[in-house]
Design goal:
With 540 residues, this protein is an alpha+beta fold. The chain is 28% helix and 17% strand. It comes from Streptomonospora arabica.
């Protein structure tokens, strides 16, 4: 057992965790940042998910440091890749020309940029990074966390003492370890009066997880994988609310729930510079190859790449049969282990089906030339290192954001709820994927929102802060808070808040409660590029 101490401990190296560590270090504070995998970056890297963002992201709608990440990724491609002159000159370069985002890119590009941002702080000793470490215990004293015990994956334990502890894990793992009040799954309609909440609360009703995978396509070659062990099950599985087998091109439209047929045509001869990505105008999800494409070969000089690379995060490989989260009375560690194994089998089954059975535009069946890309994802068979987690445990917060605060049908298309303690902003549709409770999609319009500082404050714990998807939302509003720039903003604000509290000999709750402290903290966020107010924009 090794022991160390720091000023701020950030547990979880996803987007929120990196943002929190960076903000605290830029404030001059010493930080230990732990991460369960060997890649920092979470959604952008180990989970291999191109960024889901608001339609105004190129002009406003994120923090300055998040914008630094985005522009860093573009600079990485301009510096390292043989781009066509027109692509290199484009100020809004989209390396993959995917339709889901204005910045689709390979996971390793984001990893390189995030590591570069942390590098000077690691060299100066302000940030200590512990990869391959996961939390297994928290030592508390009343309403405070004194230390967190980390398993190093090699049979050892490392206990870190800290004045402030930030939970940036993908599942909100510190909350039960520390005994912090928290929620899981769906609240009842009676609790907050949310129109889309179920009549009865269901703590085990979680959005599905996804093991994304990357593929390229090489006509005339055969890269067919071994038939997955669970292929027969997944090939025949048909959800009650699905128009056909889950492993197939027929799936509900998330917004209308009407049956829709997806298409799949590798390496289309369309100029990627003509592709527009605007979720407010067109979801862009019906053509699977181009939806989350992360490298578009025709953006680069002829001969540089013989195929695009696309990322499979589609209706076909969302998994929701079991909760992938330990919940007392509902799911234990073995349930979670089996959920992840079944989710991996689903994604491999989708890949095998695409290679062997999927209908081709030319009337044939199967694309054996689909090549898994473990070199892109860093893991076996081209699957991502970690599952894409959409919904974690959530703190019971001083302020809970509900459907009444963000749903366009309830507040009107320009009905932004103004927060006196605004600590950031975000925007995305309320987008819930099918869940372990048997629910189909809930994908409804929302309005841009201000992130209340109260949503980052637990009702009781004094030095434990959420730094990701575990902030004070509901099952419903998590659907618009879980996206990349919002998670980053929450982490960045949490890191600044912990550092500000140390600087001023106070605590986070007092920062919100005392007008002079709140005014000074808000001014700090303004100076450091955390946007707190929206201009006059409408929801979508």
């Amino acid at each position: 057992m090794t022991q160390s101490s720091t000023e701020i401990l950030v547990v979880g190296g996803g987007l929120g965790g990196v943002a929190a560590a960076l903000a605290a270090a830029r404030s001059g504070r010493r930080v230990v940042l732990s991460e369960e995998t060997d890649w920092i970056g979470g959604q952008l890297t180990s989970q291999a998910v191109p960024p889901d963002e608001n339609p105004w992201i190129e002009r406003f709608g994120c923090t300055a440091s998040y914008r630094q990440v985005r522009e860093g990724i573009r600079a990485y491609y301009r510096r390292a890749y043989p781009l066509r002159a027109e692509a290199a000159a484009s100020p809004e370069l989209n390396p993959g020309a995917g339709r889901v985002s204005k910045l689709c890119h390979e996971p390793r590009a984001a990893l390189a940029v995030l590591e570069e941002l942390l590098a000077p702080h690691r060299a100066a000793g302000r940030i200590t990074l512990l990869t391959g470490h996961r939390p297994v215990a928290a030592h508390t004293d009343g309403d405070e966390v004194r230390a967190v015990e980390l398993d190093d994956g090699q049979g050892g334990r490392h206990t870190v003492q800290a004045a402030y502890v930030l939970d940036a894990t993908e599942n909100g793992d510190l909350l039960p370890l520390a005994g912090a009040e928290h929620a899981t799954g769906a609240e009842s309609r009676a609790e907050y009066g949310e129109p889309h909440a179920p009549e009865t609360a269901d703590p085990a009703n979680l959005q599905g997880i996804t093991y994304c995978f990357a593929v390229s396509h090489h006509e005339g070659e055969d890269h067919t994988i071994e038939r997955p062990a669970a292929y027969d099950f997944w090939r025949s599985y048909r959800p009650d609310f699905w128009p056909g087998p889950l492993v197939g091109f027929a799936a509900p439209d998330p917004r209308t729930l009407e049956p829709a047929i997806r298409t799949f045509d590798p390496n289309p001869d369309v100029d990627p510079l003509d592709v527009a990505a605007d979720q407010s105008a067109d979801a862009g999800d019906k053509e699977l190859w181009g939806f989350r494409r992360i490298l578009a070969r025709r953006l680069y000089r002829p001969g540089a790449f013989d195929s695009d690379i696309t990322l499979a995060n589609w209706p076909l490989n969302d998994y929701w049969l079991k909760p992938a989260l330990e919940i007392d009375g509902y799911a234990d560690a073995d349930t979670v282990r089996r959920a992840h194994e079944e989710a991996r089998q689903l994604s491999l089954s989708v890949l095998y089906w695409l290679q062997t059975e999927a209908p081709r535009p030319d009337g044939g069946a199967g694309f054996p030339g689909l090549r898994p890309r473990p070199d892109v994802t860093g893991a076996e068979h081209g699957l991502a290192k970690a599952a894409y987690v959409r919904e974690s445990r959530r703190i019971k917060a001083v302020t809970t954001v509900t459907e009444h605060d963000v749903a366009m049908d309830l507040v009107g298309p320009r009905g932004i709820v103004r927060r006196h303690d605004a600590a950031g902003i975000g925007s995305y549709r309320i987008d819930l994927h099918p869940s372990t409770g048997g629910d189909t999609y809930i994908d409804i319009p929302s309005v841009p929102f201000e992130i209340p500082l109260g949503a980052l404050l637990p009702v009781r714990m004094r030095n434990l802060l959420p730094a990701g998807k575990n902030a004070g939302t509901t099952h419903i509003t998590n659907g618009c808070f879980r996206l990349h720039p919002v998670e980053w903003n929450i982490g960045e604000t949490a890191g600044r808040l912990a550092a500000f509290s140390l600087d001023n000999g106070t605590e986070p709750h007092a920062v919100r409660e005392k007008d002079d402290l709140l005014e000074r903290f808000s001014a700090l966020l303004d100076r450091t590029g955390v946007e707190r107010r929206w201009p006059d924009v409408r929801g979508y």
